[in-house]
Amino acid sequence: MPNSLVSPIGFNVLAWTAVMSEKLNPITERLKTIGYDGIECFVDNTDISVYRQFGDHLNQLGLQSTCVVVVGPDSNPASESAKIREQAVDFLKGVIDRAHAMNASVLCGPFHSAFATFTRREPQPDEYAHSAEVLHTVGDYAKQANIILAPEALNRFECYLCNTMEQLLQLVRMADHPNVRAMFDTHHANMEEKQFPKAIQTIAPVLAHVHISENDRGTPGDGHIPWDDTFRTLAEIKYKGWMTIEAFTRNDIDFANSINVWREYNDPWDIAENGLKFIKAMQEKYIF
């Protein structure tokens, strides 16, 4: 986690693309000019050398980085199949290798279980146990790379294992590894948590990453997320980790279709410019 008196601010480049390539270079250059401390990118199976080159580019710009990933049914940590859980470990190790190649400090996302994969029953104790075991194993690998794993709770339409901070805290404690912590995402919390302050206080002991995301996935501050409650409580718990904007568009059609984004919310540069101003204003208001 970055050492700073103020939480560093990042921007997730999924607003443009989920594909790692040199096409991200001019985007990251402009994000640096705007005033961001770092960027977040999606990790796929692109050759690791591309991530290393991108990391070198970010280093030259003076930008830090974090990564996000999802897992599918063939690499589901919560699966009852030992083979699939082994595939989950192998897959996540490959992701960590790529994140390490670009000098990322955090790997976040709902990688505790397969994205949008449902059993049509409530989460079972053995599923939490399986997921925790995989996270612990991968935590050892992440420790060697100096990367913090920050699994994410998603809304009920995209996940069933972890919807709330209470469930996520339980899973992280079961994983029992110093490199396995947790993420808070305002978009998902807007659907699943009754009170933002209580949710943040619940996850505070293991909180390592925060996604600043509006209720409609557009520009932060334009919607109805309880932002004052969010920033006030983060200040109260003395949170100093990343505050990363995660917003979506239909710029990358394949990615947009995979997460059910069917319309445009805001132009990505509107999100980036006005979102940064909003976060800085809230940080100043609550004296981070």
TrEMBL record:
Q: Which residues form the Xylose isomerase-like TIM barrel domain?
A: 30-278
Query: GO terms for molecular function, please?
Result: isomerase activity
The question of whether Isomerase is a record keyword is answered with yes
Which ranges does the record mark as transmembrane? none
| Highest taxon above the source species | Bacteria
Write out the entry's keywords from A to Z. Answer: Isomerase
**InterPro entries in UniProt:** IolE/XylAMocC-like (IPR050312), Xyl_isomerase-like_sf (IPR036237), Xyl_isomerase-like_TIM-brl (IPR013022)
Tell me yes or no: is Nuclease among this UniProt entry's keywords.
no
Q: What is this protein called?
A: Sugar phosphate isomerase/epimerase
Give the organism the record lists. Spirosoma telluris
- Lineage from the top down? Bacteria, Pseudomonadati, Bacteroidota, Cytophagia, Cytophagales
